[in-house]
Write a structure and sequence with these properties.
Order of helices and strands: EHEHEHEHHEHHEHHEHEH
Radius of gyration: 17 Å
CATH class: Alpha Beta
Bound molecules: phosphoenolpyruvate
Number of domains: 1
Strand order of the largest sheet: 1-2-3-4-5-6-7-8
Largest sheet: 8 strands, parallel, barrel
C-alpha cells in the first residue's frame, strides 16, 4: 500500500494572494508520514507548483477533458495540466456530475486520459441523500465505480474517493459505521475486479472532514486518507488534518 493521502480540493476558490496559505502549510507541516496534495483551480496550478518545488506538497487538478487536444473551448487536457505541474487529477467529483451532467462513461474516459498521461486519477463516487434514504448507497457506489473506472486500474495510478453528496460542504458526516461499511464494500468490489491492485488501492473519505473529526475517521479500516474541501483552504485546518493522518499512518 502506498502512503496515505491527504488531498485538498480548493474548488472555485483561490487567487494569487491565497498562496500565502500554501506557504504557511509547507512551513507548518514539516515532513509528514503521509502524502499531501492540493488541487487548486487550474489558474493556480503553475504558481502553486513553483511554491511546492522541493517540498513534500504535490499539486493536482480538479478536472480534465478526455481528449488530448482539439476544438473544446474552455477545456484543459491532461497533458496541459501535467505541463503546468499537476501530478494528480480529480475526476467525477459530484459537483461536476451535478453541474455539468457528467456521466460514469464520461468520467471513465477522463480517468483513461489521466492514466494515459501517467498522472494519478482520484475517482469520486458517492450517493445522494435520497439514495441513502432509499437504501441504495452500496448499489450506487458500486455502479459508479464499475462505470467510472476503466480496465487495468492500478494502486499506483488510481485513488478512489467516497464522497456522500449530502456530506459535502454541509458539516454533516455519515456515522463512523456507515463510512466503514461503504469502504469495506469498495475494497471488496475493487479486489474482485482488480485483484491485488484493488486490494492495495487507496480509498479516501470526503465530506466535511475537519480537524475535529479527522482522527476518528482516519482510524477506520480501509480509510487511507481524505479528500478535503472547505477545510483545505486554511493552512491551520488542513495542517491539523495532515498531522492527524500522519499520526494514523
Ligand atoms: C469536496 O469537495 O470534495 C469535499 C469533500 O468538500 P468539503 O470537505 O467541504 O465537504
Amino acid at each position: 500500500m502506498k502512503a496515505k493521502l491527504a488531498a485538498g480540493n480548493w474548488k472555485m476558490n483561490g487567487l494569487g494572494r491565497d498562496l500565502s496559505e500554501v506557504r504557511a502549510l509547507i512551513s507548518a507541516m514539516g515532513a509528514p508520514s503521509c502524502e499531501v496534495l492540493i488541487c487548486p483551480p487550474a489558474t493556480l496550478i503553475d504558481r502553486m507548483r513553483i511554491l511546492a518545488d522541493e517540498t513534500v506538497l504535490q499539486v493536482g487538478a480538479q478536472d480534465c477533458h478526455a481528449q488530448a487536444s482539439g476544438a473544446h473551448t474552455g477545456d484543459t487536457s491532461v497533458a496541459m495540466l501535467a505541463d503546468a505541474g499537476a501530478t494528480h487529477v480529480i475526476v467525477g467529483h459530484s459537483e461536476r456530475r451535478a453541474d455539468h451532467g457528467e456521466t460514469d462513461a464520461q468520467v471513465q474516459a477522463k480517468t483513461q486520459a489521466v492514466l494515459g498521461q501517467g498522472l494519478v486519477a482520484i475517482v469520486c463516487v458517492g450517493e445522494t441523500e435520497t439514495q441513502r434514504d432509499a437504501g441504495q448507497t452500496l448499489a450506487i457506489v458500486g455502479a459508479q465505480m464499475r462505470g467510472s473506472m476503466p480496465e487495468g486500474c492500478t494502486a499506483q495510478m488510481v485513488v478512489v474517493a467516497y464522497e456522500p453528496v449530502w456530506a459535502i460542504g454541509t458539516g454533516r458526516t455519515p456515522t463512523l459505521a456507515q463510512i466503514e461499511e461503504v469502504h469495506a464494500f469498495m475494497r471488496r468490489e475493487l479486489t474482485e475486479r482488480f485483484g491485488s491492485e484493488g486490494a492495495a488501492m487507496r480509498l479516501l473519505y470526503g465530506g466535511s472532514v475537519k480537524p475535529s473529526n479527522a482522527s476518528e475517521i482516519f482510524a477506520l479500516a480501509n480509510v487511507d486518507g481524505a479528500l478535503v474541501g472547505g477545510a483545505s483552504l486554511k493552512a491551520a485546518d488542513f495542517g491539523q488534518i495532515v498531522a492527524a493522518l500522519g499520526a494514523a499512518s
